Amino acid sequence: MQTETIIYHARGGIAEIRLNRPHRLNAVTQQLYDELNAALGVAEADGDVRVVLLTGEGRAFCVGADLKEHKAGRTAYDRRQYLRGEQIVCKRLLLLSKPVVAAVNGFAVGAGAEMAIASDFILMAESAQIGLPEVSIGTFLGGGVTYLLPRLVGLAKARELVFLGERIKGEEAVRIGLANRVLPDEGFLDAAREFAGRIAGKAPLSMQLAKEQLNMAAERTFDAALTAELEGMSFVGTTQDWQEGIDAFAEKRLPIFKGC
């Protein structure tokens, strides 16, 4: 699958989605949001895909809105649809039944940062930077970042990142809990693929349940979490993958999960 703004490849259990507007540092347009949402739908529906790897073609992950697209003549409805497009994509990244790894090469700014934050994992190249400049330029945050960011880094640090709008590098992002790992620039995408491949080898139904329940953690009581975990353990115990995991452990080999 390849469209004007997205490159999509699926192999080895990984759906690799690359934002493909390198001439504009992958700045987002309505078309990019629509095509990215469609690509995520393809990954969701593909039973062979276990994990999604989201990255940017060229020198950047995504530098936010393409301001050249915000021309005179766009109606208020057009502007709202564009903004709604990001909300739809970020919600889909968050709620996708499969883990999403954002491989941040270069800048992830504004909407680019918001898409990364909506993903399950953020890997950053050594030279990459991430930031939320919206308040600094008179616009506002989107993609659920006001909900997600405080849960990742705490309210005090979230205020700092939003109000100052400063870009930070990978080491700082990892230190505050925003990113998971910093990887060398050289061979960055290959290292990100290796990370995603390790996730792809896990039991898909178990991962789906884990993602759902971790995302709900802040909304549940402890007793509700226990109930949800009990239901989850009971469910996976009925699957072939559960038996495969038990057998592989006993036989001292790697399990081969089928998602059933």
Automatic annotation (TrEMBL):
Belongs to the enoyl-CoA hydratase/isomerase family. Pfam families: ECH_1. Its EC number is 4.2.1.17. Keywords: Lyase. The lineage of its organism: Bacteria, Pseudomonadati, Pseudomonadota, Betaproteobacteria, Candidatus Accumulibacter. It is an enzyme of class 4 (lyase). GO terms for biological process: fatty acid beta-oxidation. CDD domains: crotonase-like. Transmembrane segments: none annotated. This is 2,3-dehydroadipyl-CoA hydratase.
